[in-house]
Amino acid sequence: MKELELDLENYRNLLNQYITTQDETSLYQAEQFSKLSMQHNISPEEIIHVHIQALRELYPDLPKEVDNSMEFLLEAMISYGLAYQEFQSLREKQLELKSEISVAASMQQTLLSTDKPEIEGLEIGAISVPANQMNGDYYHFVTDYQGTLGIAIADVIGKGIPAALAMSMIRYSMDSFPENQRFPSEILQNLNRVVERNVDPSMFITMFYGLYNPLTSSFKYSSAGHEPGFFYDAKKDEYREIRAKGLVLGVMNDVTYEQFEIKINEQDMVILLTDGVTECRVGDRFIERDEVLDVIKQYAHLPAQEAVELVFKHFERLQDFHLRDDFTLIIIRKNV
Amino acid sequence: MNLRSSVKIQQEWDIVGARQIGRDRAKALGFGTVDQARIATAISELARNIYLYAKNGKIVFETIDDLQHKGIRILAIDCGPGIDDISQVMEDGYSTSGGLGAGLPGVKRLMDQFEINSEPGKGTEIRTVKWVR
């Protein structure tokens, strides 16, 4: 098939060929012509114009009425031509925005990056995957000279860019707290004040903060309205919900948070998550917390990092690879 | 043919009158049918803006015909409320998303030159030109 050219002569020949043979080849060529025209930003009214001219050349005795009707059609296509041009400029703009957001997303990743600490006798697995480009979930590990491990996991109600911005603020306020303020209740109390003062009242942040001391094997924690995690008691081989009451961050200025403590024994696990995990949707149904736990159980015997990744993959598949919400899951297991 | 004429826009059917004059002039100047239709559509948009937002204004036609080039200049002048944020109305998707038509970005695309001046509370003047190719 010869190369298509975007000119009147070529169109006229194609049209003539189709009118005489009515074969599929000419129709296929018409399709090619149309695609080529789009590549060259040719508006529909221009195609009609070419059509009119071709018709006039092929049928000089075309009834006046038909000729007029073609002019009418041309007029009717003008707005479509404009809409087409607008669509193209919007598409370009969308590409620009997309690349801007991806720059922001990688910057966010740098800002919020946290190293998974190596702690003797403790195995940590963590995964956090945003639904869109930017993540409104956040987790962070802090270790200090005494060897304690602080674990923060937070979720902004809402997702996307505003949520991501709020998270960067949380991260930096936490960095600015004095070293001696490490207790979960204190940290949440301070963060609450920061969020209340600086974040739009319509935005809420839930957060769980835990502090593990390897010397005493104690795990202290407080929660600001965060999705309850699970505690695996190896001796009894049972999973319990980590219950902790507390108001979400940013609602009121002065809030105190209750602090709880549990003892972690060998092979026990602490499982922390965000509601992107528990509010996975399958079709139009939210899955139950029990189902989430069942999936976690299924992989819990594996090394912690492998387990969180497999749980994520499971839910990703369940949701047809289209996350509705940011997804964060942390598993901490005491090995010795 | 006189070089300058104008149509008052007060009612919706004034838009049709403005289109007619614009098309006749464009035809006389030697514009092709596609360009005639584009000019008429641009006039429609300009006149509709006057009718919808300013209530009262005019479309002015000028024929440009000197040795170098031929073209038509179309002005839309009103004493309406003016436009607060010109960059917003010139943004793609701003008026089209409301289904109001091609809007001013559309007019800009249909014509070769486009200039807008607007003062809130005083009115708007849009100057456009299309050249015969």
TrEMBL record, chain A:
<protein>
    <submittedName>
        <fullName>PP2C family protein-serine/threonine phosphatase</fullName>
    </submittedName>
</protein>
<dbReference type="Pfam" id="PF07228">
    <property type="entry name" value="SpoIIE"/>
</dbReference>
<dbReference type="InterPro" id="IPR014787">
    <property type="entry name" value="PSer_Pase_RsbU_N"/>
</dbReference>
<dbReference type="InterPro" id="IPR001932">
    <property type="entry name" value="PPM-type_phosphatase-like_dom"/>
</dbReference>
<dbReference type="Pfam" id="PF08673">
    <property type="entry name" value="RsbU_N"/>
</dbReference>
<dbReference type="InterPro" id="IPR017944">
    <property type="entry name" value="KaiA/RbsU_helical_domain_sf"/>
</dbReference>
<keyword id="KW-0378">Hydrolase</keyword>
<dbReference type="InterPro" id="IPR036457">
    <property type="entry name" value="PPM-type-like_dom_sf"/>
</dbReference>
<dbReference type="InterPro" id="IPR052016">
    <property type="entry name" value="Bact_Sigma-Reg"/>
</dbReference>
<feature type="domain" description="PPM-type phosphatase">
    <location>
        <begin position="123"/>
        <end position="334"/>
    </location>
</feature>
TrEMBL record, chain B:
<dbReference type="InterPro" id="IPR036890">
    <property type="entry name" value="HATPase_C_sf"/>
</dbReference>
<feature type="domain" description="Histidine kinase/HSP90-like ATPase">
    <location>
        <begin position="35"/>
        <end position="127"/>
    </location>
</feature>
<dbReference type="Pfam" id="PF02518">
    <property type="entry name" value="HATPase_c"/>
</dbReference>
<protein>
    <submittedName>
        <fullName>Anti-sigma regulatory factor</fullName>
    </submittedName>
</protein>
<dbReference type="InterPro" id="IPR003594">
    <property type="entry name" value="HATPase_dom"/>
</dbReference>
